[in-house]
Amino acid sequence: QVQLVESGGGLVQAGGSLRLSCAASGRTFSASALGWFRQAPGKAREFVAAISRSGDNTYYADSVKGRFTISRDDAKNTAYLQLNSLKPEDTAVYYCAAMDKMRILYSSGAYFARGSYDYWGQGTQVTVSS
């Protein structure tokens, strides 16, 4: 089992930056691939970024590529999402997610799918004003 708690959200002006954190409990954190998703009002939850178990591979939605950076610090059981050059359309609740350590990934496409993630945090609100 992995429990996830996000923090770092807030209100920021367009062009600004935020760093989201995802603190995890459980010994299996380092064996879990991690992802960030977001959900804007009235919209479906969408993939933002993911990082492999080793941290060697990262994946991004086209809408955030070049602006957001995902990272992980297994010694601290924490994942991060650095959000730069924020736009009003980035406004959403951001969720951290983790895959079970036993999940087998047959392709990199699995990182982008909500159904690949077994554990979810409660979310943190990011609001970008124009």
Describe this protein with a few key phrases.
globular, four-stranded antiparallel sheet, 130 residues, seven-stranded mixed sheet, mainly beta
What's the quick description here?
With 130 residues, the protein is an all-beta fold. It has strands at 3-7, 10-13, 18-25, 34-39, 46-51, 58-60, 68-73, 78-83, 92-98, 119-120, 124-129.
Structure description:
The chain is mostly beta strands and 130 residues long. The protein is 0% helix and 45% strand. The protein contains no helices and eleven strands. The protein has strands at 3-7, 10-13, 18-25, 34-39, 46-51, 58-60, 68-73, 78-83, 92-98, 119-120, 124-129. Strands 2, 4, 5, 6, 9, 10 and 11 form a seven-stranded mixed β-sheet that branches. Strands 1-3-8-7 form a four-stranded antiparallel β-sheet, with no helix packed on it. Strand 7 (68-73) and strand 8 form a beta hairpin. It is globular. It starts with a strand and ends with a strand. The mean pLDDT is 94.
